[in-house]
């Protein structure tokens, strides 16, 4: 990265940190993963100060028309050794990632709303250049209008049209993808119906092709993602999600080959978080066509743990076990490889080297609070191929290494440790360490296999 850009970032970061530290004691805050889910209407009758004027500026006498502003800055330094287990021969690879965004949320009384957000993301220093998840110099991340068709205490029906982020469930199939430098977005329309105990979203979307320049991303101009996602919340009972998702792609690549893909996913999730016993059970079945062949794929996941609410540090222990189908018979024209669609980047660790296709994993992990500001987590992720006729895939679901020629199943084991230090409600520091011990499969298919090592440090500021 040019020194001038770094110098500007440092000066800006110091200024923002100083300002936010000074207001952190007086401004209550609860930032959301999706910034458009934040509600600042409660500041209507509050005492005015500079920060609260940014978050709520009235545009009408009754205060029902108002505008709110916000943003975020993130810088991440990465050390990655043997990113692809030595196959690419890169070895030690260190680089810097940056991401900035600004948004405005305009509420026109109770029925209409416009939300706009721009983002910039850069990568500097990576030997083999930016990945598809690393760089997009300037782009519109969100630009949509909400129209409330029904709005009362019992129910709400809202139409959202335009560019928007999506995130559902645990992020296994549709995630905004917060971990990587670039968050996902789509162009389209979504109809949202909500009551106190039940909600359902119906959406029709188009995915963009991401380019690294300014405002140069290209829309597909054709619907390639659609679906329904429903949530049922009943007191004293488990939370239940039921969903259907469809995708259409002109070219998808698997061990079976490259072809057109039309895929339907039907699934359900039963979950409970909070103190005491926690769990997350999910299963999905996929069908459709791959070229002239049929798709028949599935996944099942069981996660269970316990949060010790009354013990100092509130420790939690959990165990996750995933089964994700792979292709049974390479070359027969049919496809049993699961497609994770638009998955969460860090579902199998904060920087996984293996994606959720043709995979069996066993994942114990534990968390503990150190004081009031530090959250520590330790993980072990053991990975095997589900089918010996299929290879392994990247976290995005993209094809990585062919495996039909190998009879080895064990891919490897990842050991992880991470810390999150929340300086205040605006600023956080994340540090992580990941060591990947290669298994028999990697040693079989790569001529000079190497264990992987990943270390990162990330500073995030939100306002």
- Count of alpha/pi helices: 3
What does the radius of gyration come to?
23 Å
Strand content: over 45%
What string, H for helix and E for strand, traces the elements in order? HHEEEEEEEEEEEEEEEEEEEEEHE
Largest sheet: 18 strands, antiparallel, barrel
Mean pLDDT value: 91
Low-confidence stretches: 1-28
Helix content: under 10%
Outline: globular
Give a count of the beta strands, DSSP E runs of length 2 or more: 22
**CA distance, first residue to last residue:** 25 Å
Coarse structural class: mainly beta
In words, what does this structure look like?
The chain is mostly beta strands and 463 residues long. The protein is 7% helix and 52% strand. It is built from 3 helices and 22 strands. The protein has helices at residues 3-23, 50-55, 440-445, and strands at 57-58, 65-81, 92-108, 112-124, 136-151, 155-164, 186-195, 198-209, 218-219, 225-232, 239-254, 257-272, 276-290, 293-307, 316-324, 359-370, 374-384, 392-393, 399-401, 410-422, 427-438, 452-462. The longest helix is centred in the first third of the chain and has 21 residues, at 3-23. The protein is globular. Residues 1-28 have low confidence and may be disordered.
In a few lines, what is going on in this structure?
It contains three helices and 22 strands. The protein is mostly beta strands.
Write the layout of secondary structure elements.
Elements: H1 3-23, H2 50-55, E1 57-58, E2 65-81, E3 92-108, E4 112-124, E5 136-151, E6 155-164, E7 186-195, E8 198-209, E9 218-219, E10 225-232, E11 239-254, E12 257-272, E13 276-290, E14 293-307, E15 316-324, E16 359-370, E17 374-384, E18 392-393, E19 399-401, E20 410-422, E21 427-438, H3 440-445, E22 452-462
Antiparallel strand pairs: 1-2, 2-3, 2-22, 3-4, 4-5, 5-6, 6-7, 7-8, 8-9, 8-10, 10-11, 11-12, 12-13, 13-14, 14-15, 15-16, 16-17, 17-20, 18-19, 20-21, 21-22
């Amino acid at each position: 990265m040019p020194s001038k850009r770094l110098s500007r970032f440092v000066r800006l970061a110091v200024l923002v940190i100083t300002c936010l530290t000074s207001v952190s004691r007086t401004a209550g805050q609860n930032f959301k993963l999706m910034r458009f889910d934040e509600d600042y209407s409660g500041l209507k009758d509050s005492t005015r100060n500079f920060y609260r004027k940014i978050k709520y500026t009235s545009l009408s006498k009754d205060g029902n028309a108002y505008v709110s502003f916000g943003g975020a800055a993130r810088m991440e330094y990465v050390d990655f050794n043997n990113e692809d287990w030595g196959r690419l021969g890169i070895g030690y690879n260190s680089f810097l990632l940056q991401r900035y965004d600004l948004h405005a949320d305009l509420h026109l009384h109770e029925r209409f709303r416009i939300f706009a957000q721009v983002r910039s993301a850069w990568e500097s220093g990576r030997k083999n250049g930016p990945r598809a998840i690393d760089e997009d110099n300037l782009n519109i991340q969100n630009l949509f209008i909400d129209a409330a068709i029904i709005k009362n205490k019992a129910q709400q029906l809202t139409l959202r049209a335009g560019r928007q982020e999506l995130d559902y469930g645990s992020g296994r199939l549709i995630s905004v993808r917060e971990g990587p430098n670039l968050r996902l977005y789509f162009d389209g329309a979504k109809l949202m119906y909500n009551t106190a105990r039940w909600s359902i979203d119906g959406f029709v979307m188009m995915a963009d092709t991401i380019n690294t320049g300014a405002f140069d991303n290209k829309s597909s101009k054709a619907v390639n993602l659609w679906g329904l996602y429903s949530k049922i919340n009943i007191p004293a009972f488990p939370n239940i999600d039921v969903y259907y998702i469809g995708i259409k792609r002109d070219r998808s690549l698997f061990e079976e080959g490259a072809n057109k893909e039309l895929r339907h996913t039907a699934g359900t999730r039963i979950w409970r978080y909070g103190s005491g016993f926690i769990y997350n059970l999910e299963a999905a079945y996929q069908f459709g066509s791959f070229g002239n062949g049929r798709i028949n794929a599935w996944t099942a996941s069981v996660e269970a743990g316990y949060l010790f609410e009354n013990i100092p540090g509130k420790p939690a222990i959990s165990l996750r076990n995933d089964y994700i189908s792979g292709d049974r018979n390479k070359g027969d024209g049919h496809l049993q490889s699961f497609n994770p669609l638009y998955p969460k980047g860090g579902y199998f660790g904060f920087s996984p080297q293996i994606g959720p296709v043709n995979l069996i994993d066993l994942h114990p992990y534990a968390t503990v609070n150190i004081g009031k500001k530090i959250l520590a987590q330790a993980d072990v992720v053991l990975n095997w191929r589900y089918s010996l006729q299929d290879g392994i895939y990247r976290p995005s679901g993209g094809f990585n290494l062919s495996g039909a020629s190998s009879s080895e199943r064990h891919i490897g084991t990842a050991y992880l440790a991470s810390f999150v230090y929340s300086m205040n409600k605006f600023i956080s520091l994340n540090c992580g360490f990941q060591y990947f011990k290669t298994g028999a499969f990697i040693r079989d298919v790569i001529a000079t296999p190497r264990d992987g090592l990943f270390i990162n440090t990330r500073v995030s500021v939100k306002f």
